[in-house]
Structure formats: C-alpha cells, structure tokens
Amino acid sequence: MAAWLIGGELPQIKFSIAGIKLKYYALAGAAQQITVGLAGPFVNILMGLILYNKKRFALISLGLGVVNLLPVSCLDGGNIFRAATEKLFLPQTAYRLNRAVSVATIILVFALNCAVQLKYGTNISLAIITVYLVYRTVG
C-alpha cells in the first residue's frame, strides 16, 4: 500500500516457507524505497503501541518491527540501508558494504542468541531468527 500511495505500482507478492517477499517494479528513487521500507516496521511498532494492554501481542508486534529494521539484506532495514548506500556510493561498493553490514549484523544477532542461551537457558526465538537470517542472506 505504501508503494501505491507514493506513486509506485503495487508489488508482486511471492509466498514461500521463509516468508513473504514483495518485489517492486516502479520505485525509482531512494526516497521512495526508504519510505516503503519503513512502512512495514512502522505499522508493527504502531500496532504494538496502540494495543499495549494486550501484552503478548504488543511485544510480538514491537519485536517484529524492531527485527525488521535490522540492516540485513533480506529485511526492510536492509532495503533501507541498500537504498541509502546506492545513493552515496558506486554500485559495486554499495553491494560490498551491504553484504558486510548484513553479515556483521547476523553475527551480532548470533552472539546475542548465544549470550541469552547461556544466561537464561532455552530461548528458541533468537535461534530461529538467526537461522532465518542466515538462510535468507546466504540463499
């Protein structure tokens, strides 16, 4: 909807076991790409804040919004980061920078996962997020 509202075409939607992927055809500028990238996490965070009395739903919604802002290439944060770097650097440099930041972020999430596992015991959610990010970035 955000792409359509700012003058782009509706995206092509692909469903897979790893989630939903939107492919945009008519987002010409970096500002449009950043706006569309921020729309999903914004809605997640807004829903979490609006429904704060439903604690479990609010935490899940806020968590999804924050995780989706991570600068990993398969997430909205990665698309935002890519659009910004492509505006500032040559395409090859932007690609390398995006790849390096994605890998560094995944390593940090994995380290956080290990720290939480060691301190609190079993917490499968961070492990699932880490595996998902590795799968989507490598695959």
Beta-strand share of residues:
5-15%
Low-confidence stretches: none
The radius of gyration computed from the alpha-carbon positions, rounded to a whole number of angstroms, is: 16 Å
User: Which strand order does the major sheet show?
Assistant: 1-2
| Helix proportion | 55-70%
Count of the separate structural domains: 1
Rough shape?
globular
- Average pLDDT, rounded to a whole number, is 81
Report, as a whole number of angstroms, the end-to-end distance: 27 Å
Structural overview:
By secondary structure, the protein is mainly alpha-helical. It has 6 helices and 2 strands. The protein has one domain (2-138). It has helices spanning 2-5, 30-50, 55-68, 76-88, 91-120, 124-138, and strands spanning 12-16, 19-23. It has a two-stranded antiparallel sheet with strand order 1-2. It is globular and about 45 Å long.
Summarize the structure.
With 139 residues, this protein is mainly alpha-helical. Helix content is 70%, strand content 7%. It has one domain.
Keywords:
139 residues, mainly alpha, two-stranded antiparallel sheet, 6 helices
Per-chain topology:
Elements: H1 2-5, E1 12-16, E2 19-23, H2 30-50, H3 55-68, H4 76-88, H5 91-120, H6 124-138
Antiparallel strand pairs: 1-2
Helix pairs in contact: 2-3, 2-4, 4-5, 5-6
